[in-house]
Amino acid sequence: MKNLKQKALFLIAANVLSGSLILSSCANNYQITNDLSKDKKNNTITNDQIKIGEIKNDIAKVLIDIQTTKKDLVTIKGEVINQQTKVAEAYKLFEPLQAQYNTLDSEKEKLVNDLKALLSKDSATQVETINQKIKNIEYDIQTINFKITQADNDIESNNNLIQRNKRTKTSNTTAIARLQTEINQLKQKIQTKEASTPLNSSEIIANNRRRINTLNTLIRDLQNQLRNLTSSDSNAITNARDNLAKAKQLKAQLESQITNITETITLNQELFTSIATVKTFIKNFINTTFTSNPEVSSLFDTYVLDWFDTSVNNSSIGVVYNESLNNFIEVVRYFILALFNENTRRQPISGAISSSIQRKRIRNALLTLTSNQQAIINQKTEEIRTFWTNLQTQIEPVKAALAKEIEKLKPIDDVIGSNNSNLGDFDSLLNSKLTEARDQLNQANNIIKQNTRVLDNNDQSDKSARIQALQDEIAQKQQELDQLNQSLQTDNELSSLKNDLAFKERQLESYNQQNTNLDQEIADAEQKITQLTTAKQDLTTQRTSLQQQRTELTNSLRNYNPSTDNTEITNLKNRIKLLNDRFDYQEYNDKNNAYKEVKRELVKLEHKQNIIQNSLNNLDNRLSNLKRQLTDIENQTDSSNSPVNKKNKDQKFPVFPNPIEKPKNDNGLGNGNQPGNTNPGGNNQGDNGNTRENSHPENGNQGGSSNMGSSNQGGGENNRGTNPPQPPVIPPFFNQNYTKQNSYPDYISRYNSKFVSAETIYQEIYDRTFSLQLPTRLNDPTLSNDILSNNQGTGWLLDYHRYTNTNKYKLFIATNLHVLGNFSNANSQQVLNELNYVDPTGNTPAGVALGKTEHTPTSFASIPNLSYSQFINQRGGSVKYYGSEQFFTTDRGFSSTYNSTTYTPNVYTSSPQIVFAAVDYISDKAYNQFKPMIDTLWNTYKQQYPDSEAVEGYNKLTNKKIPFYTDFGVIEFDVDLDHADETFRGWINKAVSAVDNYIARTKQSGLPNTLTGSNFMTLDYLSKGRDLSQTNPEYAFGLSNAKNIYIAGYPRNTDGTTLWMQNNPTERNGNTISYFRPPKNVDAFAYSTNDANSKIEVGNISIYTDVWNRPFVDFYGFNYNIRFSSLFFGASGSVAYNDFGEIVGIYNNTSQSTKFGDLLKSATFAPFLQTANISTPIGTIYAYNLIDGTDKNLFPEQTHSFRDNLRLIYKNGFSDGTRTTALFPQGY
Q1: CA 301, CA 630: separation in Å to the nearest integer?
Q2: What confidence tens digit (pLDDT) does each residue in 836-868 have?
């Protein structure tokens, strides 16, 4: 509601002025209702008219309640203003003392710390502290030893790789020498063969002609022989017929060769037709595009088309596609790109155009293009690309078919590969050969027919005298036929030799390329060894230094003697007493208590104001519903409505006046509920402005109607003829100063040395953050695909456990619970039941995939809002994944990521499990305050829910209670980096290092809101901002707000693309005001003091069923509203840091109207901590700590946390028997 504060107050002020008018209208309505009651007794009105009267009566009552509530709101506003004045006056009296106190306190703090250090030397605590330091150093030494061992293993692995590659290279070198010898021998054989049997186009044609002529002669001779044979000459007849069959077989071989040649010519013509189509299309495009610049068209004709025609005419058929066409494609493509691309246009055109003068002429011509011509070119770009793609698709089958036919034409291989005969000559030879061969075959067929007839009609007369002579002649013809076959065999042998030569040359090239690759791998491995050796030396140096520190601490512990410090202790006590005597602590405490008292009263009044405002909003909503019912009934009332007394059905009834009808002298600033306005009172709540709830009250209108305060729009007939509305005088409580909420206290200087740069924080966030894919295996055996690919989210490494003496880790990944909405039944049944983490469907996790950008971002600097598309490469490019299951690389629901996912079966060594979910983590005492309201909500929900079976299932599951929900969860799984590739291993190692760096930073003393030694904040912003948790050790110098919040993750664009994105665009430091209220962006805090929302606090809890297919209560605790951080959907679950490198919460909501790359909408994060119990009108929100709630003195009403669940799930430690993690090095 805060986002409507100012506009709603305009309406409140106006409604106060018009109160008498409303009361008058209400009185009229009561009279109308009484009249209706009388008429009802006489049965003279319709049922609808009775209903109308009842509704108007209810409207009148609501209007009275609204009027009363508005008066109460104005009254409380006045009280708030008065109290603010009192607070300011009290602070004015207290501020000088506070400044003096801070100065003295700073001096005293140093003295006290020195005194504590000396005093602690006399206690066992000091000894324990030194021992703890020694243990920490030993842990660091152990870590370094592990890293050194890992480096040694990597060095050994790379050395082994080098040795393997060298052995392989030696083997390849031997094979290369052998192949080179065999190639030389084959070339010699081919040369000898070609010398005795030359194979060129003319000789092949001549050979075929000679063979066909020989066949003709042979067949004629056979005809004469058979004519003279008798039936007794059976052997001679058989021989003649065998020879005839051989002649026919040889004819078939020639005919097949002719067929292949014919098909080749056809395919070659089709190919050149396609090329001609390309030429025509490009030529037409050039001419039509550059009608006003003939120089470009002329250059294209001269240096592209002419070059191509010359190149093709000088090419043989075997290289026309691989050389001429590809060269033409590249030249045309370059020419087009030169026209389209500004950068290419300024580069010299190379390739076919080699002359510097020609390149200069082309470049100058392209640079003279007008902006209009460039616009035309841009419009044609996609058309050309589409045409080009389609044409290439058409050419591919032609290319494939041509390649097959060329394989068949191996006997004319040197004609195909010759550079001396051009394509036109070859076509002519092929056609000539085809014609001659066909003529000769026709003649051969005629001769065969004649011989057959002669054979059938052979004279049976006795011609035995000539048989021997004929048999001798047949033997001679057999010899001639064998010679023909031998000629063909020689041709085939030559082709076989050439095929062997080509194969061995390819083998030789492959071995040479393999050796080149091996050389590169050896060089890379040697470079890695050098890097690892350097790193090992650095680690050894660090280890030596730590060992020296350990020795010094051990010696100091051994030689420790506290007696020498007594004098210094006395001096320090005297100096502290002197400082205390210089300051009037009584006056300071009195004025401090007075200031706190008026401040607490102000908080109570503001809280009361919120309650009244909420009541007013509810009344407005009720009024809107009544008006809607009234309008619906009046629209339905006509002559078809039967009266109660049919005898009086024609009786005319009076038109009842609208109880909220605006008088003619209304100035248009009434209660905002005029007819036609569907937004009662103009009070447009922003509850629908966010994905799940309104995450930023200042921008609550996001995603809802924007009719804020426009109460007079669509006023209907009552507005006709009225004067334009005049704005009211702004009440004094509008002039609020938001400076304090957006500034640090004076003592911020004590933390100046603790600020961390944005570059460092974003780098750390990047290293520990992943894009998550968590598919679900559906419990439905009827499904052919039982894998549900859930929406992806963002997760980050919260904690890890390193297994003993291995390169294996257990990773604890944190994310939003709504990201884990289908991460069902992910643990043992005992754990699920005890923690109430059961999903009733029986679905289970199907695997896990971690993703990151292809390369580390080159810069983490801010970029302008909505400009992300220009910085994709700078931000790391597209995202790649490593998945635990094979189906991640298939299109089983992973349509946008499976091409960029690598299956790594031996890396993920355990199934993912749920460790902590922020549901049902408060006691029955904390829960039962809200149970009556929850029961009412649930009963209403069941009546409205359309799926009765689902509701019945919910009923069985919720016999005890419907638990609260907070948007945070942690899962875990094991990875073995020994089986990971270099990329994935680098991801995990950097994530682990990022966690180590974070823990090392939080170990420092003096961080705000964090007790020294704690890994997370120990005082939350809200408890400090509301002056609660005053007994907290960090309270006195705690912070209640944050200048900058740093969030980054992996949102997913609407086209399915996932990218790395950060908050805080460059506008964050500008002078504009991007949000509803001041200050300017540069002065605004990302999180302002007390800018948080809770559904419990405003009495607006709801039923939420998007997690584990069961109902929860949304939500427990608070969400913090933040600026400059509206990362798009998919970034849910990102970690949130503050200026000091402290983790403050988890990103969970953004405005529903947010566009991809728009970072200036509203957003929220969920804090992990609330140290104070916060009272609300409907109950108390008890303190909790989602990470470590094990201290029940601090969090008595919390039952589970991440650390609690580690103790529950891993009662006996992890599989290696240990109980340590990075966050809990002494054991969880």
Answers
A1: 79
A2: 999 999 999 999 999 999 999 999 999 999 999
Widest CA span in the chain: 160
Classify burial at 578, counting beta carbons within 10 Å of its beta carbon; exposed 0-12, middle 13-18, buried 19 or more. exposed
Alpha helices in 679-819 (DSSP H): 758-768
Domain segments of the chain as ranges:
2-105+601-724, 266-433, 746-1209
User: What is the rounded CA–CA span in Å between residue 891 and residue 523?
Assistant: 38
Q: And the tokens for 702?
A: 């996001």
pLDDT digits (tens, 9 = 90+) for 547-559: 888 888 888 777 6
C-alpha Rg value of the chain to the nearest Å: 46
For CA atoms 632, 637, 642, 647, the dihedral sign is positive
Other C-beta atoms within 10 Å of 401: how many? 16
Angle between helices 47-120 and 124-196 (to 10 degrees): 110
Residue 660 and residue 653 in contact, taking contact as beta carbons nearer than 8 Å: no
**Residue 98: both structure tokens together:** 């506070």
Tokens of residue 126, six digits: 């000091």
pLDDT per residue as tens digits for the range 952-974: 666 666 556 899 999 999 999 99
**What phi and psi, each to the nearest 5 degrees, are found at residue 986?**
-65, -40
- Could you give the count of Cα atoms lying within 13 Å of 834 in the half-sphere of its Cβ? 13
CB 306 within 8 A of CB 390: no
**SS3 category, 1058:** strand
785-806 b/e (C-beta count within 10 Å ≥ 16 → b): eebbbbebbbbbbbbbbbeeee
Q: 1125 is written with which tokens?
A: 């951080």
CB within 8 A of 352, min separation 6: which ones? 303, 304, 307, 311, 327, 331
Residue 579 tokens, joined: 């400082």
Helix, strand, coil % in the chain, rounded to nearest 5? 55, 10, 35
What would the 3-class secondary structure string for 435-478 be?
Answer: HHHHHHHHHHHHHHHHHHHHHHCCCCCCCHHHHHHHHHHHHHHH
Q: For residue 1132, is pLDDT > 90?
A: yes
Decide if 518 contacts 173 (C-beta within 8 A). Answer: no
Asked if the peptide bond before residue 643 counts as cis, ω within 30 degrees of 0, the response is: no
Class of domain 746-1209: mainly beta
Asked if residues 846 and 777 have their Cβ atoms less than 8 Å apart, the reply is: yes
| Residue 419 neighbours by CB distance under 10 Å | 10
If one counts every other C-beta atom within 10 angstroms of the C-beta of residue 665, the result is: 8
Q: Any idea what the Cα angle at residue 826 is, between residues 821 and 832, rounded to 5°?
A: 100
In this structure, of 184-198, 228-242, 640-654, 962-976, the range with the lowest mean pLDDT score is 640-654
Choose among 844, 774, 789: nearest CA to 1109: 844
Residue 1145 and residue 181: Cα distance in Å, rounded? 72
492: how many CB neighbours lie within 10 A of its CB? 12
Per the CB < 8 A criterion, the answer to whether 1126 and 1154 are in contact is yes
Please write the tens of the pLDDT for every residue from 290-302: 565 666 666 666 6
Find tokens 């957006």 and name the residue.
742
Ranges of beta strands (E only) in 920-1034 are 964-976
In degrees and rounded to multiples of 5, residue 1042 shows phi and psi of -140, 125
User: Would you say the C-alpha torsion 1191, 1194, 1196, 1201 has a positive or negative sign?
Assistant: negative
Tell me, what DSSP letter sits at residue 207?
H
Distance of CA 131 to the CA centre of its chain: 47
Whether 24 has a pLDDT exceeding 50, the answer reads no
Q: CA-CA distance, 214 to 197, in Å (whole number)?
A: 19
**pTM summary value:** 0.48
- Beta carbons of 1063 and 1048 less than 8 angstroms apart: yes
| Rounded Cα gap, residues 820 and 837, in angstroms | 12
Cα torsion at 584, 589, 590, 593 (round to 10°)?
Answer: 160
**Which amino acid is residue 925, in one-letter code?**
K
Neighbours of 327 (CB within 10 A): 17
